Amino acid sequence: MTHTRRDHPDYEALRPQAVALRHAGLSRRQIRDRLNITLTDAALTHLLEGEPPPEWTKRPNAKDDLRAKARELRKQGRTYDEIVTELGVAKSSVSLWVRDLPKPRKSPEAMRQMREARWAPYREARDRAIEETKAEAFSEIGELSDRELFLLGVGLYWSEGSKSKPYQRRERVIFVNSDPGMIKVYMAWLALLGVERKHLRFSVMIHESADVAAAERYWADLVGADVSSLCKTVLKKHNPKTVRKKVGDDYHGCLVVRVLQSADLYRRIEGWWSGIVAGRSAPTATSASGMV
User: Fold this and answer.
1) Residue 1: its pLDDT value, please?
2) Within 13 Å of residue 68, how many CA atoms lie on the same side as its CB?
3) Lowest mean pLDDT: which of 4-8, 83-87, 114-118, 216-220?
4) 113 vs 132 pLDDT, higher one
5) CB atoms within 10 A of CB 74
């Protein structure tokens, strides 16, 4: 039956026709055209109530797969930004898809990385300031005179070298240190004093758990000696309960430098140090500020 368009259609009379057209596989637009009347979307929905649309009119949601993937990533503990980067979708979409899921707890490693990233600019600025200060101080030294090296060596030995005690006189010149720079300065000081190489003996002190052979090569190269000429290495017993920080490739133990037949030299060092103490027991304000 053909209907003319009118403003107030009889919905009860139209429903059987609309349902029949739906069963025939027509879309909403096609049904509206076949009925040839003016129908709002709400009115047409009322006429077709309970009648599912035909399969051919159903359009798959292109984002269903992305939504499922986003939810799976969120359950794995991923952040919004990580999900956005991986799926290439808007952050607002991710928020809508996963907002009902619990907020993931960050792992200790993730928390550590966040702290590192937060403080990295400050550490970089601090490190630059430190390096600039050290470079400025380095430029203030210049080449040492023999007298400066002599006085420096006396102080160096008296702070780091072995010393005789009133209750146990041991007048031997023995220097032990792990700082290669300090060893170099000490060797230069001995050369300045005229101590011949044939009167020097070298040995290594190191923990038994370290690379002993590598340490021996390291110190032998530093002082220009053959590894075979080193005295027997002293191994420090390893205590597994102790958390040692001096480990890894940078750990070489200590080098022991002995001067043979050195009683007279030791007495001179003791006298030199006493002279330094007597000559300037405390720096004046003027001279101290001049070094800064």
Assistant:
1) 47
2) 4
3) 4-8
4) 132
5) 22
Cβ atoms 189, 150 nearer than 8 A: yes
pLDDT, one tens digit per residue, over 176-232 is: 999 999 999 999 999 999 999 999 999 999 998 889 999 999 999 999 999 999 999
Per-domain boundaries in the chain: 11-57, 64-98, 106-142, 146-283
Q: Please give the single-letter amino acid code of residue 100.
A: D
**Residue 60 to residue 66: CA distance in whole angstroms:** 13
Q: How far apart are CA 218 and CA 210, in angstroms?
A: 13
